[in-house]
Amino acid sequence: MNGPLHLWLIPLLPFAGFLLNGLLGRRLPKWLVTTVALLAPLAAFGAVLGDAFLAATPMELRSWNGLGPVPHLLSFPYIETFGQWINVGTFHIDFTFVLDPLSLLMLLVVTGLGFLIHIYSVGYMHDEEGYARYFSYLNLFLFFMIVLVLAGNALLMFVGWEGVGLASYLLIGFYFKKTSAADAGKKAFIVNRIGDFGFLIGMFLLLANFGTLTFSEIAAKLASNPAWQGGILTTIALCLLFGATGKSAQLPLYIWLPDAMEGPTPVSALIHAATMVTAGVYMIARTHVLFDHSPFALSLVAIVGAATALFAATIALVQNDIKRVLAYSTISQLGYMFLGCGVAAYSASIFHLMTHAFFKALLFLSAGLVIHAVGGEQDLRNMGGLWKKLPVTFAVTTIGVLAIAGIFPFAGFFSKDAILYAAYLHGTDGKILWSVGLVTALLTSFYMFRLWYLAFLGESRSERGHHHATPFSMLGPLVILALLSICGGWIGIKRFATFLAPSVGANTSDTGSAHLEFMLSIAAVGVALLGWLVAHQFYGQKTGRPAKLAAALPGGYKLLANKYYVDEFYAAIVVKPLMVISKFLLGWVVDTALLGGTAWLIGGIATFSGALLQRWQSGNIRSYAAWLAAGAAAVILFVLVPWATVLGSLSAIHLGVAGQ
Amino acid sequence: MNSLFTQDVPLSWYLVLSAALFSLGIIGFLIKRNLITVFMSIELMLNAVNLSFVTFAHQWHAVKGQIFVFFVMMVAAAEAAVGLAIIIAVFRARATLAVDRIDLMKL
After folding, report:
1. Is A116 helix (H, G, I), strand (E, B) or coil?
2. What is the domain range of residue B66?
3. How far apart are CA A258 and CA A289, in angstroms?
4. B23: domain CATH number?
5. Which of B22, B23, B24, B30 to mutate to test the interface with A (most CBs of A within 10 A)?
6. What pLDDT score was predicted for residue A465?
7. Is the ipTM of this complex over 0.85?
8. From the CA of B30, how many Å to the nearest CA of chain A?
């Protein structure tokens, strides 16, 4: 039985919150703004929970009341169509929402985490200017993210895709009076647009080759034609991958995410760690049939993911801004998810997406508390010894660090292990991918414990020591997230994969043994502990070892501290040439010379002819009358003279002359 | 023998007369300086047109042309009343009726 679930309610509730707070927020009292802002995601989360409950209720529970066997309370995929959007010839786009295990899980993460972070924001943004504006943007983000997740076709997904980009832009540039924040917002938007170009081209190619953008129809067409491999499918998959690298901050388009840390910290937690940046992973999982039919594109996904994971992790080793360490860590973890997708272990990838959302949101929110406690300072070198001041924050951060490092039995262990295991089993290049993932795990463990030691242990290096009690609204979400970071992985990849199988297909490459899985787990935990040990050796005591190592390898340290000079490289090869082209070719040649010249020419003609014709306007009434009479005479002449005859005789004369 | 009085005057004669009167009106309008003469020239043009109207009305046995003439005469009478009043007002204000000198709306 598929009763109407009113899926449209889920996105529209946050949208109503956006409208209310966005239009009226400045006039409403603060408590009302807070109520609206919190109710919108709470109601959406409630609706999603209700749907999840319907989906989870087993049929035995339903049949005891004598109604007989009720097949399913909610059978997947559940599709709701709200009307036509585009209907041109054979091209149909409907407003369709699809609820299946994949979108249900994403919805739970998005609305659940969204609600927690809204609560946290109440405390965090309490004294900030633009309180209502902040919450209206946050609600707008939820609206678009839910549209993205629920979309049943690529175009509707693109609406959400662009919308979350817009919300991200607005929230990164929330402190728009700061030039760096405004610039970071623009950078994020423009870099995302470059990726969106790939997504768009991919959609056009889908439309040209499949005649539809509906995911289920594309999957059906591919299923009926299993021999169709590579070729145009590779092109489409690569275009979609390019779009995903933009949104999910992968090589080569990751550069916007570190700068996005200019936004308020809860925004970094919600948008730039837990939800929006995972949209690329979600999109690949959603269109996985295309990737399954293109081994080349799939292996490129894995290579991009592995390369990004390692690349970002090395940068994170030496960053000193607490939020930037977390940003590079996010890029690195997203690389893991791509790696998982690339070895066709979509459920492992989504599993890691979920657990990462828990512990990374937790880490960001704790970082926000740390930053508040030391008076807006973000430099790890100026922190230290905070465990005394912030015992709860210290405890939950420890949980988050253990989780991201992949230490048993925290959430990150299970998901990371699932990805590494799938990578190890994947064909010939799997071993390479696995070792890259393992090295990244080592680095991850090291830089996270580095952050932990620098911020919380040791001596206090902070001058500004004022600290006020943390409100419960900020600690509550942290505790919930900490619990999720501990238990989130206990469901286990097997059950998780079974749950997701209707959406992303079963993982067919399961050829390993329990013994191998155990050995790989031991290796993963081993490198995590090794990373901890090294971090302890470097930062546990005041040894001066980091400085010595940096001095011993000045080139390497400088390269990492300057993030491999990628920003500078892009500035040199993309931004500068664009500026030159804009300034000289478009600015001077086109604008000044071509457009300005044309305008000047037309203006000159008008001025000149005006100067000639103004003599006509003598101001002498009799001259006007004379022209009037002359005009009337001309009209009469025109009417009376039989032009056809005249012209005929004229041409006859002409012909006669020519004939002689 | 057909006398001049028993025979109809040909159509063209009327039209030539009408055209001549109209042209005289135009010329008078253009070259005369006295406002009253200019005004009379306008009347002359109107009546030249009236003449063609009745001519054609007679020719085609259509009464519409004659009705038109009545309208024109009526409007011309009204116009004459208004026009002469304006001329008197102008003369009182400027003490001249030369059209070249009356080239400003402002006093």
Report:
1. helix
2. 11-101
3. 32
4. 1.10.287.3510
5. B30
6. 57
7. no
8. 6
